[in-house]
Specification:
With 313 residues, this protein is an alpha+beta fold. It has seven helices and five strands. The protein has a five-stranded mixed beta sheet. The N and C termini lie far apart (151 Å).
Length: 313
Amino acid sequence: MGMKQATMALLLTGLLGSGCVTAGTHQAKLDELARAQADLNKSRQEAVDLSKERDELKKRIQDALAQVADLSGRLSQAESKVKGLTTERDQYAKLLNDSTALVGQLKERLEKLGQNVDKLTTERGQLQAGLTDAKTRLEEMRKQKAAAEARLQMFRSLVDKLRAMIDAGQLKVITREGRMLIALPDDVLFDSGKAEVKPQGQEALAKIAQVLSTIPDRRFVVAGHTDNVPIRSGRYRSNWDLSAARAIEVTLFLVSKGMKPQVLAAAGFGEFDPVAQNDTPEHRTQNRRIEIVLQPNISDLPPLEGIESAPAK
């Protein structure tokens, strides 16, 4: 029993044991007793509330302790993780420093390599240009070789077709100064000091015209030559006149025997293109001649830059 309950019991006993209590006093005591009861009930309620608060506070303390324990564990884990991260950070920092140093070394090597690459690129370009030029020249040489072989084949064919006349001493097929030509001595074609073709010469020229007509895409120059003995004729002013007249006469005869005039030309050289010294009768005889020169085709030559080709007729 509590202190307040004992006090109220004693008070109630005293009141009941006294027979001389007045009504007012009695009522006052009852009121006081009611107030005491109310206070007692309130105290009881407060005690209940305090008990609840105590239990709640105890539970909260337990929860707080559990949270503290959890947080303590998590803190330990975090500290361990931080320690691990710190170690990892230090490792990465060292790796970064090493990488930075390596990058510097590589950059220096790349710069040197870049210089070497630039040099190699330049040299490669030069070599490529040289290779291209060499290929171009090789192709030109191949074309020239093919053209030379074609000219050689044509020369052999011409010699074969004129073999009988060559063996008879009526003409020669030779190359001189890079040109292929048929050389006929003047005594086969002309009398001394004259430009008219003799019958023997006409027969030889007719055979030559027949052979030359079979050579396609080729032009010819009929060239007249004399020795250096001055001419004594009222018809021709000089050996030049005589050589030109003979060349024209031979050209006209070749046309009459079927050669196209478009592929023929006549030229007189007089005594100015000798093949021997004019110091003996034999040498002068060699210089008095008619040459039919096979002109080279421009297609047989290497390409000439900057020179425009004329359109074909």
